[in-house]
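Prompt: Have a read of the protein record below and flag anything odd:
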Amino acid sequence: MSLTYVVTARKWRPMVFEDVVGQSHVTTTLRNAIASNRLSHAYLFSGARGVGKTTTARILAKAINCLHPKESNPDNECELCKEITEGRSVNVFEIDGASNRGVEDVRNLREAVRYGPAKGKYKVYIIDEVHMLTKEAFNALLKTLEEPPPYILFIFATTEVHKVPLTILSRCQRFDFRRITIEEIVSRLRFIAGEESIAIDDDTLFIIAKKADGSMRDAQSIFDQLVSFCGDKITAKQIIQVLNIVDQELFFRTTNFIRAKDTNGILTLVEEIISHGYDLREFLNGLNEHFRNMLVVNSTGATVLIEAPDVQKKRYQENAKSFSENDLLRLITITTQTASALRWNQQPRYTLEIGLLQMIKMDSSIEIQQLLSRLEDLKKRVGGKPDTSDTAPLPREERVETPIRGSVKATPPMLRPDQIVSPRLMLADSPPRYQQGRSLRPSDGEPAPIPSTAEELPRLSAEDVRTKWSTLIDQTRKERIDLWAFLGESKPLEIRGDKLQIGCPDNFHLDTFKRNRDYISQLAQKVYGGKVKLEAILSSAPPSPLEKPENDSEKKGTLQHPVIQALIREFGAEQVV
């Protein structure tokens, strides 16, 4: 009985191309090249750790030197195969690129290349971590790598292919080794456990494979660690205890607390995570994956795209119905933000608690289409068709420019003769010039139809027009004090039927009036008791009989207005005469 213990990664290292797990695209190409005698003089194997780069290089070295190959595979029984397997072959040299990275090492290699193999057909140089060579060493290797002797074969292996110069890459056949899937790792470990007579269930194997992150060597190392702790029988509970892995049950409990809005439960869960010494970042990453799995099930209705045991897939199928896609997307966003904040926060526990509480307090998402459907149902229950009269768009309020404050008085504008309007006033007691539904044109005196309105303007005297105009100004002061000053400086000139002409002292007042025409028209309709059309014009004429000079009491009342008093008190405003 041998007392020497050999780790699983070495004991169960693949010996033929078929045993290399998950790299069939590489092994098939190499076997075909050997069978057709189309071997390249240099190969570059790149990929993550523990995926079979060096193992494949050794199998290739044995296959091209084997005395009795079988279907382009080494027989592993001849003398040359045994020497290569045991690492004592004089034809195969495994060089560590990290410790033999200088120009002198490459010069020694160039000198050794000049001599042929002592046994077999090929002399093979396997340089591991070739990206560690210096720039000068790569340059010294270029000529030999491009035109080596026919009996020389270079095999380079690297985990960081981007650090290898392009001049080297162009002289090699490159093979990219992919990460090994969880199913492939589980299958291989199940085979090893059966050969070693170790009882282990598939759930435990799945946890090991997931922890290995695509590396077969890492998975086999974890397997050895568990065997040392558990013996011949390994359970999922033991592996969680040994590796301090976050239990998947915690993630399902978290979603249950979020669904139930249980604040006490979620804070107790955080205490449990802290007390067990779990890595908080690892917990958030696992929770993010948990939400992703639920989103996939919710979106596709299947569990094909989920990497989980069959028992957990069934639970995902049941629990995914409790959340909508929008809710799961928001939960993933909060989890990602919490994991990012955890990196810089000095109180990681508080950050985790806040993130989980945000998930609990989050309201459920409702699509707009659902809201519209509910609204329609509500209208049907109430009865009758919805009244659309109140939903008409309100008139857009025009922007009003703030008047200039201070003691500067505007200069009267220079008007053309055609812009000057002589006010033609109506008699104080005479009614407007219209008959029952008809009016007279001044030009020909023939009656013309007046458009019917919902509410015609009543008869108004000059005194009524002036009084109601003052009322309109007072109402404007209550609702739109910014417009009040402009209307106070504009005066009514003449009323014709349902049209009232307003005289503005300058273009600035005229533009302001036009911008706010809708508001003033609505207010005039309320004040005058009927629909009235307002027509603003420039007027430099003296005050008309519709106008009434302000008496001292009105001036005093205006000066006593709280806004005017505030302007005088705060800004020192003065009255302009």
Observations:
- DSSP finds 24 helices and 13 strands in the chain.
- The chain has a mean pLDDT of 80.
- Residues 280-300 form the longest helix (21 residues).
- The chain has four domains: 8-177, 182-243, 248-361, 456-546.
